[in-house]
Amino acid sequence: MEFGWTEQQQAYRQRIRDFLDKTLPDDWDNIALHGPGSPQQTAYSKEFCPKLHAEGLFVPHWPEKFGGRGGDSWDHFILGEELWQVGEPRGAQYMSVNWIGPVLMRYGSPEQQAKFLPEILGGKVTWCQGFSEPSAGSDLAALRTHAEPVEGGYSVTGAKVWTSYAGLGDYCFLLARTSSDRKGGIVILLVDMDSPGIQVKDIPSVIGRGDIHEVFFDEVFVPADRLLGEIGQAWEIINFGLANERIGIPRYAFSEKMLHRAVERLKKDGRYNDPVIQDRLGRVLALCQAARLLVYKVIDERSKAKEPNAYGNLARWSVVRADQAVNDFMTEFMPDGLLGADPLQTAHHQRAIAAGIASGAAEIQLNLAARRHLNLPGDR
Amino acid sequence: MDYDLNEQQAEVLNGLEQLIQSITIEPPHEGVFVAWGADLDAKVAEAGYYDIVAAGLDLIDGALVVERLSQLPLSVEAAISVLIAPVTGLELPRPFAIASGSALAPARFLPVAKTLLVDQDNQLFAIEVDQANVETIDTLFAYPYGKLKSLDGVKMTPMNVPVADFHRRWRISMAAEAGGLMKSALDLVIQHVTDRRAFGRPIGSFQAVQHRLVMAAEVTEGVRWLGMRAAWSDDDADAALAATYVQDSIPKFCTDLHQFCGAMGLTLEFPLHYYTYRLRALLGELGGGSGQARATTALNWGAAA
Questions:
Q1: Is residue B22, in this structure, part of any structural domain at all?
Q2: In this complex, which of A272, A281, A314 lies closest to B217 when CB atoms are compared?
Q3: With contact defined as beta carbons under 8 Å apart, do A221 and A160 qualify?
Q4: Could you tell me the sign of the dihedral formed by the alpha carbons of A346, A352, A354, A358, in that order?
Q5: Is residue B216 part of a domain?
Q6: CA of B158, closest CA in chain A: separation in Å?
Q7: pLDDT digits (tens, 9 = 90+) for A208-238
Q8: In a domain, B221, yes or no
């Protein structure tokens, strides 16, 4: 048991920082404040991601045969920490790197891999996640969007909601059902977002533009070769993807960065010596560091090719708690940051208030950890 | 970064485990607040586990030993001997007691101690304990507590070591000990809510109980990893951070765990208090959560002017 970084890992992290220093524009904070799905950040991501890939830093953890560098889970996570803590210049494309790509590598047909993976590597396509529906959020298996088998493919009719990144999305990782079998009847379709019959409606929200949408499917034709995996395999694929996604965003890194920025401002304003502020700062930093170490345990297991388990749910809860605590501290003691004094504080706030809701509600994480980590009994 | 035990750590823990399994650890007798494991303490001492850090093994090896021993229902004086006393660089007689601020302050383990380590006026002292000068304190805390009756004729030997080093190791020991205590307390309560039924089902099946137990599990893990990292680095800031998290977590952790055991958990026949009342004792050490939190802030961002 040891908690150090290798020289190679330290050099790798420094290389990413140097690249960001060199690449991010002077007005980056003002772009980042709009959020990963915003038109501003999406446009910038299409400029940034090809540069990142040219530097060998877009998908360093992907296998070489798919265009990566064959790096390990730590390469992936160090990259995520460094990018998320500056406000995520990959925009929505972090999702493609984190789990859409790995899912395609594991479950995609050779043709699907040949089409989609190079496009992700090019850094110019955006995927959205067609999971939640008006009556199927946390209870994902209750989804009703219907995929009717027709000649040459499927005809999809239904509605998705809360869909992140749909407004500027090129593809949708869509869950639909072909039968009433709760989990076995679900299929995954890789849908072109410009297909006839798709209508996207932006839902204004407090978490920024481009993050929440309604997506309507009206007899949308999806070719048969866009079915991912086999019939009946969707739930397994979803779980694989979500295992990567639960701790896919190193939120604690951005939160810690906000604390560092907060201290700079507090010192400048002469408020750093306030013992109440000193007390709260120490406590929220401790929460961030605890979350960091729980997440690192998951990454350590992943790097040793251990099977995903419910520790990820526990770690996710820890991350949510830390993110929210930092946000509460900032809002209570530094409200001027939400009034223009620090553009990144608004960006952090908007991500933090969604931390316990996006990518699976925190209560679902607690349910899963109760059953699978603590082995607590069911209700019978 | 590696969360698995290395060969040396596994060897130390395996040896300790064999020793623990070879000893009959009597459950504390009903009606006893303090479960001092005198025989266990002597046997662990005889096997040399209290000396492993002084003998040159890594501090984290010592923290793993402290954590394991803290999981037992009997308290032994492990944390001070293994993790704190070696900063003096001297071979002082154990068991140890510790106090901060005043040599006359209540001190953990004083009624069984041979040496008291105390910081006073920014100087660390070692005091040879004369048990005739010790007043045992009747307390709910599940450690033996006592205080010196008088300093008349007491020799306070200054130690040539910064108080900051003493506090750093104290904080690391706090985290290692709390990690073990929390694990056992949580295991005990999980078993209870699995066996105990109400409204026709195990009480551990209710979501209101499950969620809070997962939260308790999360802080147990946080305490463990922050504590082990601090023991690995032996760094002031890491130690303060770990102790901050420990003391920040203890109140809700203890309250929830007792809550799920109902009135049963308030009785002395149910052993939960042997863990939670050691945790509650740790809660107030070195200035409590606020003291640790402010230290964490100062060590990470600079002291308040």
A1: no
A2: A314
A3: no
A4: positive
A5: yes
A6: 31
A7: 777 889 999 999 999 999 999 999 999 999 9
A8: yes
